[in-house]
Design brief:
Elements: E1 6-9, E2 12-15, E3 21-29, E4 34-35, E5 38-43, E6 46-52, E7 61-72, E8 74-79, E9 81-82, E10 85-86, H1 93-105, E11 108-116, H2 120-135, E12 141-147, H3 169-179, E13 183-188, H4 195-203, E14 207-210, H5 217-226, E15 230-231, H6 247-253, E16 259-261, H7 270-280, E17 284-286, E18 294-295, E19 300-304, E20 307-310, E21 315-318, H8 322-331, H9 336-343, H10 345-350, E22 367-371, E23 377-382
Parallel strand pairs: 3-7, 8-11, 11-12, 12-13, 13-14, 14-15, 16-17
Antiparallel strand pairs: 1-2, 3-4, 3-5, 5-6, 7-22, 9-10, 18-19, 19-20, 20-21, 22-23
């Protein structure tokens, strides 16, 4: 048996025989700003403190990335597929593993598996697969994002019209019960939902996002007042801004809700992206809305010039990874700091994990992405 000597100082214990784990890099992005000549001291998978390199204890176990940037790992709150697997088509554990691998290769340590408007059978299988994935101990999956079925047919985009529904409170309650905590976010059209439905879903712990909606400004603002927290892929599949009828885009600009955006230069123009960034600031965050090629009756996706369309040519999703979204956003005119926050800090807040993810600060998890100077993803550091 080994005898360890401990010194208690305040509320901290230090093991004299165990080296301190310290990480250094060319730069560290804290979630707010870039710093240099600093180190991250960690303990039990959490950040203990940021210290200057001159303060690194002599007996430290130092891991150094001199030519790289350490930043908070990215989060993708809307991804439909990756590595050849489409979750709405194959709602299996194997698909979740493939999507997790796709996310990690793009610098995202966690994601919401997204199911587009689908049959009750597909949704049930997706829920069961999420629960099985968690039971297996696999990491990365936050939960399920149901993009539908409670959306507006007039703004369905590439969603399957056959399965679109107007929500009934009894059906909603059955869905939540079946979800067993797996459903973390739901995209819905607020103009189709009663106050009772919206309040029940929020009370059930589901984050609501307004999307695929034909809501007026007034209808959108009412939904926000009831507690809808965010909106889905700004500008796309929603009422546009008009100087006499500001619609939901006007409501987003004129409120305090968050909104996701797909910064690929295809789902929106560079000018529209910069306007949104200027108006929303830290309320705007990135998603990929990534899909893969598939050939099913309801979801037939075809790859075309760095994005996907359905058999009718309707834009259906991106081929992005979050790391690519960060670089594209910087190329479209925002700062590196803004882009990194929109891929990590802000989505962490949206999903309710803002006290453990999205920053490099005392008490936060070791949950980082490694980037080169051009912001290319070089790896993840977790645990």
């Amino acid at each position: 048996m080994k005898l360890y000597l401990y010194i208690r100082k305040g509320l901290k214990e230090f093991n004299l025989f165990m080296p301190t784990k310290v990480y250094t890099a060319g730069q560290i992005f804290t979630g707010e700003k870039f710093i240099e000549k600093f180190a991250i001291e960690v303990d039990s998978g959490k950040v203990r403190q940021l210290i200057s390199r001159a303060e690194i204890p002599n007996n430290s176990d130092v891991v150094s990335y001199p030519d790289l940037i350490i930043a908070p790992a990215f989060k993708d709150l809307q991804i439909n597929g990756g590595d050849g697997r489409m979750f709405s088509v194959e709602p299996t554990v194997e698909s979740l593993i493939a999507i997790n691998n796709y996310c990690r290769s793009g610098g995202a340590s966690a994601f919401l598996a997204t199911v587009a408007t689908s049959s009750p059978e597909i949704i049930s299988r997706a829920i069961n697969s999420v629960l099985s994935y968690w039971e297996s101990g696999a990491e990365g999956l936050i939960g399920l994002h149901l993009e539908g079925p409670y959306i507006n047919i007039k703004k369905k985009g590439a969603h399957a019209e056959k399965f679109i529904k107007v929500p009934d409170i009894d059906n909603v309650k059955r869905l939540v019960k079946e979800g067993a905590g797996a459903i973390k976010m739901m995209t819905l059209a607020p103009e189709l939902c009663s106050d009772e439905v919206i309040k029940y879903l929020i009370k059930s712990g589901i984050i609501l996002s307004a999307g695929h909606t034909n809501a007026t400004y007034e209808q959108a603002m009412h939904g926000f007042e009831l507690g809808i927290k965010t909106c889905t892929h700004l500008y796309n599949a929603m009422t546009p801004f008009n100087h006499r009828n500001p619609g939901i885009v006007g409501a987003i600009f004129d409120s305090n809700v968050f909104s996701s955006i797909i910064p690929d230069g295809i789902h929106l123009s560079e000018v529209a992206f910069r306007i949104a960034n200027r108006l929303l600031g830290d309320r705007l965050f990135f998603i990929t809305d990534a899909v893969t090629e598939s050939e099913t009756e309801y979801y037939h996706y075809i790859f075309k010039d760095h994005y996907y369309v359905n058999e009718k040519g309707v834009l259906s999703g991106s081929a992005l990874k979050i790391g690519t979204a960060v670089r594209k956003a910087v190329a479209m005119g925002i700062t590196r700091e803004e882009a990194l926050k929109k891929a990590s800090t802000i989505p962490s807040l949206v999903i309710g994990k803002g006290k453990i993810w999205g920053r490099i600060a005392p008490g936060y998890l070791v949950d980082w992405v490694l980037l080169d100077k051009e912001l290319n993803v070089k790896g993840l550091v977790t645990g």
